Amino acid sequence: MKQLYLHIMKYFLPVLFISYMAGITLFTHSHVVNGVTIVHSHPFKKGSEHSHTTVEFQLLHFLNHILVTDSGLLPAFIVAVFSFLCILLARPQGMRYCRTCPGVISLRAPPVA
Questions:
Q1: What are the tens digits of pLDDT across the range 41-51?
Q2: Start-to-end C-alpha separation, the chain
Q3: CA–CA dist 56, 62 (Å, integer)
Q4: How far is the C-alpha of 111 from the C-alpha of 95, rounded, in Å?
Q5: Which of 27, 55, 65, 95 is deepest in the core (most CB within 10 A)?
Q6: Using one digit for the tens of pLDDT, what is the confidence trace for 7-40?
Q7: β-bridge partners, 29
Q8: pTM to 2 decimal places
Q9: What angle do CA 63, 60, 55 make, to 5 degrees?
C-alpha cells in the first residue's frame, strides 16, 4: 500500500506544481473596481468578460497576501539546531574496535595442519 502511495505521489506532486505555476503565470489579468486595479490570475476564457463579487475579491486578497514572519520560524530553527548539537555531542567521538584476544594481532586465520 505504501509503495502505491509513493508511486502516485511521485507523479501527482510535480503535476500539481506545474499546473499551479501555469495557472499563476499564464492567466494573469486585472480588474478595475472603484478606481482600484486588482491584478490576479486564474484560468478563464480569453475572449469573454468575467467579473468577481466582493467576497471573491476578498478571498483573492487573502490567498495572495500571506505573510510569514520570523517569529514562527525562529523557534523551529532553534529546536533544529539544538537537536543537531545534541546528536553531535551524544555520538561517540571515536570508533573502537573489539579484539577477541587482547594483545594478539591476528590478521589471518590460523594455519591448518
A1: 887 777 778 88
A2: 57
A3: 10
A4: 30
A5: 27
A6: 888 899 999 999 888 888 888 888 888 888 888 8
A7: 40
A8: 0.43
A9: 125
